[in-house]
Amino acid sequence: MDVIARAWSKAVRTALPGPWRFGLVVREVVGALLIAGLAAPIEVLSGTGLALPMAVASGLLFLVRRGLPATALVLTAVASGLGGGTLPLLVCVGWSAGARIRRVGVLAGSFAAGWALMTLFGVFKDAGQVPAKLIVGFSLGGYLLLAVLPALWGRYRAQRRALTDALRERNEQLVREHAMIAHQARLRERHRIAQDMHDSLGHQLALISVHTGALEVDRTLTDRQREAVGVLRLAAVAAMRELREVVGVLHDESTALPPGPGPGPAAVVGVGAGAGGVGSGGVDGIEALVESSRAAGTPVSLLRDGERRPLTASAGHAAYRVVQEALTNAHKHAPGAPITVALRYEPDALVVEVVNPAAPEPVGVRAGGAAPAVVSGGQGLTGLRERARLVGGMVHAGPTAGAGFRLAAVLPYRGADGAAAQGVDAGSAAGPETGAAYPEADAWPLGVPGAAAGPPKRRSPAIGCAVGGVAVLAAVLGLLVWGVAGFVRAAEESTVKRSVYDSTELGAPEAEVRKQLPRGSDFFLRNLEGTGPTPPEGADCVRYLSDDNGGTAWGEDAVVRFCFKDGVLVEKQHYRVKQ
Fold it and tell me: Facing residues of 97 across strands?
């Protein structure tokens, strides 16, 4: 019983899909009652005697047309072949089938099966009364007009609604993507600011700390001067600590930035290899960094090996940042230790290496005093690895055998995008450091994986539906013309002219008389059987319509009758019958 109950519940949910809101329930019930109310009087006028069954079937099929559109269409077509009461329902189920059946093959098959069954039952019902070709023609025309044409309109409305919904969703997706892109731009800018603050300001503060530490132990200074230098050193240390906190906040805000294409913090910055100066960010700026560290009292040696090769702006800037970070870390963690900076131009990449041994003795410590606190944000090496990755290189950092430290980077001459390094100048590198702005959001790659690069290309549903509608109307018009022509021809073949009737004489051979008579059509002549005066006994009579309608009242037909016996014409009559 449970299996039967579940099957019944599933069948009901399929035939009557929800959600059944109050407005929908009222609309469906009113529609079913209206369709049933139209079916009953039409069947009464048709004289089929199926008024009640057709009314009930029409109401039920109207209710299930939403859940079972193909089934409702086929059953309605069958009922339309048996009687005309379901013709209003045929319009409704045709609309519903066109709007709800998504697969074109199922839709076409349902309509074809419906028309075939409608024609077949119509032929069986009117066999012997109406010519089969007329039944086929009129059923096809009526089916195209009452079922196919509403289906095309319903399909157009459904596809238009689907296209509108898709465009609305696409617009909402683009708005979300643009918001994500703007958020990415802000995060990248925060990341760039944090990285530059860490690299540039951190390096300068480290140099200030080293200088003040060296002055603090200078024996030529008085106690008051030494105290002032100590205050300056503590201020530099405090500034480095605050800088670390600010950089940490900025990095925490930008950690959600997903890696991927687009202008990264290092890919869009940098100047040409030929630029110089401490803040230039190119390879030539490395020598100024070295001189700055030497001025602080730290022995730094700069070694170059190989034939110099041009670098992209981003690769040159990455080399500058590697040396700057390494010198800063050496000043903080190994003050006073000699530092070696090496630039080796290999055949395919520039190798930047900075090595320092362990500090010989803490610098800037008074007798009996404690070593100054080392401030480290922990972001420098992470930023360097990201810069190197964006230009297609790599960074290695680790201790050496002598308790020292080594920082090395491999930076290819060509960037990660494969563009040849042509000594790009500062004006050609797009990015905030060179004064250029980020691209507009519309020019950025979409931030959602798998998102289309442009709006979806869709064909307008109006074109196909309009073509189908024109084809249906053309077919209906053709069938109408064919039907009218056939009707006129059948009427002519069932009508005897007055001149033929008057020229026919009694006693004329039957064969000669029949040659002058038309072929006749059952559609017009089947109701004339048995009409008129009593024919002669044993005579074979044929009846035709007459073109002599003079004196006939409305609803009457003029009829002629020819009776044959023993091969001759024995009687001819001209009379009137009510239709």
Answer: none
Residue 68: closest CA among 12, 115, 3: 12
Residue whose C-alpha is closest to residue 203's, from 175, 240, 161, 252: 240
Among residues 348, 340, 310, which one has the least CA distance to residue 323?
340
- The C-alpha atoms of residue 494 and residue 119 are separated, in whole angstroms, by 25
Residue carrying the six token digits 């200030």: 208
CA distances, 68 to each of 14, 54, 102, 372, 477 (Å): 7, 19, 13, 83, 31
Burial degree of 441 (CB within 10 A; 0-12, 13-18, 19+): middle
* Nearest alpha-carbon partner for 528 in 513, 546, 514: 546
Preceding peptide of 259 cis, ω within 30°:
no
**CA dist., res. 404 & res. 402, Å (int):** 5
CA-closest candidate to residue 65, choices 103, 101, 21: 101
Backbone angles phi, psi at 237, to 5 degrees: -65, -45
Specify the pairing of strand 540-546 against strand 495-496: parallel
The rounded distance, in Å, linking the Cα atoms of 92 and 36 is 12
Dmax (CA) for the chain in angstroms is 163
Amino acid identity for residue 121 in this structure: F
The answer to whether the CB of 515 falls within 8 A of the CB of 166 is no
124-128: Cβ within 8 A, 24+ apart: 125/81, 125/82, 128/522
Q: With contact defined as beta carbons under 8 Å apart, do 74 and 117 qualify?
A: yes
| pLDDT tens-digit readout, 302-359 | 999 999 888 888 888 889 889 988 888 888 888 888 999 999 999 899 999 999 998 7
| Region of residue 423 (left: phi > 0; alpha: psi -120 to 50; beta: else) | left
CA dist 152 → 192, 260, 458 (Å): 58, 46, 18
Is the whole model's pTM more than 0.85, yes or no? no
Q: List the structure tokens of 188.
A: 């990248």
- d(CA 389, CA 391) in angstroms, rounded, equals 5
At residue 576, the 3 state secondary structure works out as strand
CB atoms within 10 A of CB 509: 12
The secondary element (H helix, E strand) that includes residue 190 is: helix 149-196
Span 191-237, pLDDT tens digits = 777 777 777 777 777 778 777 777 777 778 887 787 787 778 777 77
Phi, psi of 561 (to 5 degrees): -130, 135
Torsion of CA 121, 122, 125, 129, to 10 degrees: -150
Contact 458, 166 (CB under 8 A): yes
Name the DSSP letter for residue 417.
T
Tokens (6 digits) for 195 = 């990285």
